[in-house]
Amino acid sequence: MKDDLEFLDTLNERGTVYLIRQRTTGRMLTGRRVTAEQRPVYAALCGAALPHVVPVREIRPEADGQFLVLQDYLPGISLARRLEEGTLPAQTALSVGVQLCTALDGLHHRGILHRDIKPGNVLLREDGTVWLLDFDIARCCKPAAGRDTALLGTPGYAAPEQFGFRQTDARADLFALGVLLNQLVTGELPANRLAPPPLGPIVARCTELDPARRYQDAGALQHALLRALPPGQRAAALDGQPAAVGTVPGFGSGDPLRMLAALLGYAAAVLVAAAGFSAMTDAAGRALWGALLVCCAGWYLLAFDAGGLRSRLAPARRFRTRAGQLGYTAALGLVWTLVCGLAAFCAVAALTAA
After folding, report:
1. More confident position, 294 or 77
2. Can you give the residue range of the structural domain that contains 290?
3. HEC profile for 301-342?
4. Catalytic residues
5. What's the pLDDT score for residue 268?
6. How far apart are CA 249 and CA 187, in angstroms?
7. Strand 17-22 to strand 5-10: parallel, antiparallel, or no bridges (unpaired)?
């Protein structure tokens, strides 16, 4: 089977990660040599397709008892390389945090702890998305264990419990993520210099020494990061896309077709409203027509998440996928429709009685 792999380059100093082209498919891959102890985590990731986690395609046994883990090759640079050029704006760091929370939420729900969240293990792509790499010291949860394996993780990023004081859980990854976000904004560890608000208080809670005082899961941390972003940027952060600041829904996306569709939609709404109001001669009819317009406008703004409504009203994990976003939007839209219908009924009843 090895004959279908063409080893093109070595990607790390230890010579354990390779750039590979698969001859049979033409696909570019990375190959990582791992031990039998590391294999279970990569096996749990194989075929999982978790958001912002580089997919594992295959695991092949090696002659020396090790294994070759084949993953998709994603071009980009590490956050460590990016930090060599300078720190990031706070809103960019918040967006990075939102995406990494999505990755961690998926991992933790599969019982996987990364245990080495740091800038060198996060890939930044040109489209603004970030991807979590390097699961060499990750492990599956062991709820029955009293203490963790000592001295694993990167000093400064590793939570205190990773040094053998107690058993680690998902909150150890949140500790490291808080340190990473602080470094993205200040270039320093939070113990030396804490990021200014709104990120600083979030980092402070992530890095509490007592795990019980931290955010208890990635969804809770993601919700806090989303609330720190301007409403118009929350949906874009969840999708891992650069957000347009202060734009009308449908505009500022950079997509000419989407902008044209939004312009035509607004123009059609104005024309329909003008025609409807001119045709209505009684107050009750105008109330019904107005309720219909408000209902339609609400659905339109909800589809674009113009006010960050989904971000404010729902736990982030419930709409981290496209299907979740659509389902939750439909539920909010149904509630909005019922509210508009009830308001219209009350208005018509009052006007008719008068």
Report:
1. 77
2. 280-353
3. HHHHCCCCHHHHHCCHHHHCCHHHHHHHHHHHHHHHHHHHHH
4. 116
5. 63
6. 34
7. antiparallel
